[in-house]
Amino acid sequence: MSRPRLMQRILRYGAEHRWMSDGRMLEWYPPFLMMRIKVLEIGPQWRRVRIRLPLNAISRNPGGVMFGGYQAALADPIAALACARVFPGHSTWTRAMHVDFEHGGSTDLELRFDFPPELEARIGEELARDGRSTPSFEYGYFLADGTRCTRIVNTVAIRPRGYAKATTPPAPEQGVD
To answer: Tens of pLDDT along 108-120?
Structure first.
């Protein structure tokens, strides 16, 4: 069995048997393990997420700041994972993502994601009425001094369990906090 497949099986087992926190599972997810992320906070049902993305020799581009691809790779699944926890039993995935590099990432970066209660209510109404929702979330990366350096707008597809065009499996019925 290849090493990536083994790691996926370990992570799946950890999620099913709840012996590993969501934060640890995210840190051990193979692409993020290589990026050396550190989960600082995951609030109840992922309504608040804080993750440190270190600036190091591998993540630094020739201009001396964080590669944009590093930032995009970590930002991509966060809103969809949050939606999967808040609305269990649905399939969720990133439908589109816009990344605006406002300043160079010259320090370790902190990804800051918050799930606004008013957006959660709107999504709930759309799911009840239409059985689907495609909300957009705005979040970002912040430098050590608190300045936002990268603005993320991520659009998530939330569809019924078993949706024919779903690209990811649905979250477990009981989300892990």
So the answer is: 999 999 999 999 9
Contact 79, 139 (CB under 8 A): yes
CA-wise closest residue to 47 among 66, 20, 18, 22: 22
Give the span between the Cα atoms of 100 and 150, in whole angstroms. Answer: 6
Residues 107, 119: Cα–Cα separation, whole Å = 31
- Using DSSP's 3-state secondary structure scheme, residue 88 falls into coil
Instruction: Name 173's Cβ contacts closer than 8 Å, sequence gap at least 6.
Output: 88, 89
Q: Where are the domains of the chain?
A: 37-160
Would you state the structure tokens that stand for residue 150, as one six-digit string?
Answer: 């990268």
Is residue 30 very low, low, confident or very high in pLDDT (cuts 50, 70, 90)?
confident
- Euclidean distance between CA atoms 87 and 67, whole angstroms: 32
Instruction: Tell me the CATH number for domain 37-160.
Output: 3.10.129.10
Q: Where are the alpha helices (DSSP H) in the chain?
A: 3-17, 22-28, 30-35, 68-86, 117-130
State pLDDT tens for residues 135-162.
999 999 999 999 999 999 999 999 998 7
